[in-house]
């Protein structure tokens, strides 16, 4: 099974063919428009088997799969105390494993933006993280931005997931440490000198043991259509 996560930087209707060339089983795409409300016929036809969530029709997060794959929405909560965290989309794939799609958003939070949103989501849904699970998407985060006076830094989230047997596939496969990645996934303003690793695929033990390989898309190709590169994972499932 081939699973990809990619922040398309908007207007997936003009870019979905780039994904189709990769011929994956599942695509998790951030900053994409709602296929149900698009006027773009080809994009709507491409997105026949999908789940999507977002605050407006133009930018949200979607899980797109081949017609033969069953996607079942999971009723995990986004409500943390008195407000919603965003954007998170949980589903079950073929009744085999759970998938949590992530686009960690600032969400107008003065303190809990980006990785703080994921930290909150994990707190309210920790009891759900018991099955075989993939957590993947744009975390908008890296260990290099940890702040010493916060208990919900990138490193804290990584440690909490590790306690649950959930670890980053990139770091597992390439034997690299958090914050010391040699392959960037994001180029600020598409500037090759402003490169960061902020997109991830985390997996529970069972799925991690079935990983065949993991790749990051070619800079020359993908930087023409987005400021992010896709992460491409291959599983023996």
Provide a brief overview of the structure:
The chain has helices spanning 16-20, 41-46, 115-125, 154-163, 169-174, 205-209, 219-222, and strands spanning 2-7, 26-32, 50-56, 59-65, 71-73, 79-80, 83-84, 88-93, 97-103, 133-138, 166-168, 186-187, 195-196, 199-204, 211-216, 231-235. By secondary structure, it is of the alpha+beta class.
Word description of this protein:
With 237 residues, the chain is of the alpha+beta class. The chain has one domain (2-235): Deoxyribonuclease I, Chain A (4-Layer Sandwich), CATH 3.60.10.10. It is 20% helix and 32% strand. It is built from seven helices and 16 strands. The strands form four sheets. A six-stranded mixed beta sheet has the order 3-4-2-1-16-15. Residues 4-228 form the Endonuclease/exonuclease/phosphatase domain. This is Endonuclease/exonuclease/phosphatase family protein.
CATH architecture classification: 4-Layer Sandwich
* Total number of distinct structural domains: 1
Molecular shape: globular
Radius of gyration: 17 Å
GO molecular function, one term: endonuclease activity
Pfam families: Exo_endo_phos
Organism: Zobellia barbeyronii
Keywords: Endonuclease, Hydrolase, Nuclease
Question: Any key phrases for this structure?
Answer:
6-stranded mixed beta sheet, single chain, Deoxyribonuclease I, Chain A, alpha+beta, 237 residues
Topology:
Elements: E1 2-7, H1 16-20, E2 26-32, H2 41-46, E3 50-56, E4 59-65, E5 71-73, E6 79-80, E7 83-84, E8 88-93, E9 97-103, H3 115-125, E10 133-138, H4 154-163, E11 166-168, H5 169-174, E12 186-187, E13 195-196, E14 199-204, H6 205-209, E15 211-216, H7 219-222, E16 231-235
Parallel strand pairs: 1-2, 9-10
Antiparallel strand pairs: 1-16, 2-4, 3-4, 5-8, 6-7, 8-9, 10-14, 11-14, 12-13, 15-16
């Amino acid at each position: 099974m081939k699973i990809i996560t990619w922040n398309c930087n908007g207007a997936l209707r003009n870019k979905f063919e780039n994904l189709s060339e990769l011929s994956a089983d599942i695509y998790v795409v951030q900053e994409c428009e709602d296929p149900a409300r698009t006027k773009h016929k080809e994009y709507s036809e491409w997105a026949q088997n999908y789940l999507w969530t977002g605050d407006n029709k133009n930018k949200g997060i979607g899980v797109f799969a081949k017609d033969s794959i069953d996607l079942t929405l999971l009723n995990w909560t986004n409500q943390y105390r008195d407000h919603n965290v965003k954007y998170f989309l949980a589903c079950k794939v073929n009744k085999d494993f759970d998938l949590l799609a992530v686009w960690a958003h600032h969400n107008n939070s003065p303190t809990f933006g980006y990785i703080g949103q994921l930290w909150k989501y994990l707190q309210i849904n920790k009891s759900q993280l018991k099955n075989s699970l993939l957590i993947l998407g744009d975390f908008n985060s890296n260990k290099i931005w940890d702040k010493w006076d916060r208990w919900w830094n990138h490193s804290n989230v990584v440690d909490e997931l590790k306690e649950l047997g959930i670890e980053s596939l990139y770091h597992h496969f390439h034997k690299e440490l958090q914050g010391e990645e040699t392959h960037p996934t994001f180029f600020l303003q598409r500037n090759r000198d402003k490169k960061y690793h902020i997109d991830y695929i985390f997996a529970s033990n069972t799925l991690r043991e079935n990983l065949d390989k993991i790749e990051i898309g070619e800079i020359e190709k993908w930087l023409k259509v987005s400021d992010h590169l896709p992460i491409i994972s291959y599983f023996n499932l």
